[in-house]
Amino acid sequence: MMKELNPLHVVGGGLAGSEAAWQAARMGIPVILHEMRPERGTDAHQTDGLAELVCSNSFRSDDAVFNAVGLLHEEMRRLGSLILAMADANRVPAGGALAVDRDAFSHAVEKAIDDEPLITVDRHEVCGPISESWDSVIVATGPLTSHALGATIGALTGRDSLAFFDAIAPIVHKDSIDFSKAWFQSRYDKAALGVPGGGDGKDYINCPLDKDQYDAFIGALLDGDKTDFKEWEGTPYFEGCLPVEVMAERGQKTLAYGPMKPVGLTNPHNPTVKAYGIVQLRQDNALGTLYNMVGFQTKLTYGEQKRIFRTIPGLENAEFARLGGLHRNTFLNSPTLLDETLRLKSQPRIRFAGQITGCEGYVESASVGLIAGRFAAAEMIQTPIPAPPATTALGALLHHITGGAEAETFQPMNVNFGLFPPLEGAEGVNEKGRRLKGKDRKQGLSDRARRDLSNWLRSVTG
């Protein structure tokens, strides 16, 4: 008769913690999921819901052939991911991206967790030393780890956690947008061209600016009042989520080549005139009543956001469901501190998962939670499993954060094909013997990943 198992303690009810708890429960492990909200809030969360999305509603590209995050979606689906299942069930139009209704998604994740008899949700903050009676722990407190728990983690790791700023984009009520100036269109009209996953061609709202309007807008961003950094002064930003005004500081044309690029779009109100810059808004809820300003995360004060963003043609009378904001993210120097199964080298009973490990993005965070939950559960039933191959999207990301990255320069990283080992031998060349490049290389990496994930799954499931 099998000995009754002590529970796995998962600290943090975000995407990574929810996924870790779900995976462990699926393997028969009792779990206590600790979430400090609503007892203690954060600078960014607005609800006490599990798996709340605070920055964007998009899980990014769902292309599993030519995009690494889309490939990661596929791998997570094959591994029974709760987060991907609920994202698929609550998706909203976003072209080739996987975007969700934020509230419906969070509610669905929370219901699944609440309905799982092996999971108990404890709504209290874990702040002091992690109890010695907890045999197995996963810390998945994300980039918004409380100061008290952060101090505990600092004591465990023997070094200060690194930190960077992250910013949130505003959300606009659709019915306040002026469609005599704005229009619906997906970049390059992918749907009209018959591109798979191209959506219906109306997944984005576009607001055009001519050169004078663009220059005035950049000037306003640079001159606008910003939030006070206070004790965060000197903390670096994550390059993948820069505030729009920080991008503007890098040069007058930076935004025109970034989130405001006008290429692939034609203004039906004035089709012969090319815009100098275009602001895009992406659907943020299933009803289609809210739209997120794409790439417009900001540290402008609330008053300045309203003033400056209402100078954008089409947004003169914009009503904001949520204004942008700034919060401080923390992460570990994981290549130094964690082993290949995410255990803290100095205390192997404790694992870390999600963005605190230095992965970046909702999908990546959930995927690391997924594998951490499986690692912990397998260890608890004394059938440990190896890490997935580095040739898979999940394995490549895991390898990067647990040893593949340079510890001295370690920074948060999204999954990308640059993390994958290069194709070798015949797999890496075309019929003419030339090394694969571009889309051919990406497809080769994806094909290899699918094969190697299948082999790994067979080896760990028998």
Topology record:
Elements: E1 8-11, H1 15-26, E2 31-34, E3 58-61, H2 68-78, H3 82-89, E4 91-92, E5 97-100, H4 102-115, E6 119-122, E7 136-139, H5 147-157, E8 162-168, E9 171-173, E10 183-184, E11 204-209, H6 211-223, H7 244-249, E12 277-283, E13 290-293, H8 302-309, E14 320-322, E15 325-331, H9 334-337, E16 343-344, E17 347-352, H10 362-380, H11 393-404, H12 438-461
Parallel strand pairs: 1-2, 1-7, 2-6, 7-17
Antiparallel strand pairs: 3-5, 4-5, 8-15, 9-13, 9-14, 10-11, 11-12, 12-13, 16-17
Helix pairs in contact: 1-10, 2-10, 3-4
Give a structural overview.
With 462 residues, this protein is an alpha+beta fold. The chain has two domains: 8-161 and 332-461, FAD/NAD(P)-binding domain, CATH 3.50.50.60; 167-328, Elongation Factor Tu (Ef-tu), domain 3, CATH 2.40.30.260. The protein is built from twelve helices and 17 strands. The strands form four sheets. A six-stranded mixed beta sheet has the order 6-2-1-7-17-16, with helices on one face.
Structural class: alpha+beta
The CATH superfamily name of the largest domain is FAD/NAD(P)-binding domain
Strand content: 15-25%
Number of strands: 17
Please name the CATH topology of the largest domain: FAD/NAD(P)-binding domain
| Multimer state | single chain
Count up the domains: 2
Instruction: State the strand order across the main sheet.
Output: 6-2-1-7-17-16
**Head-to-tail CA distance between termini:** 22 Å
CATH architecture descriptor name of the largest domain: 3-Layer(bba) Sandwich
Q: Based on Cα principal axes, name the global outline.
A: globular
Average pLDDT value? Answer: 89
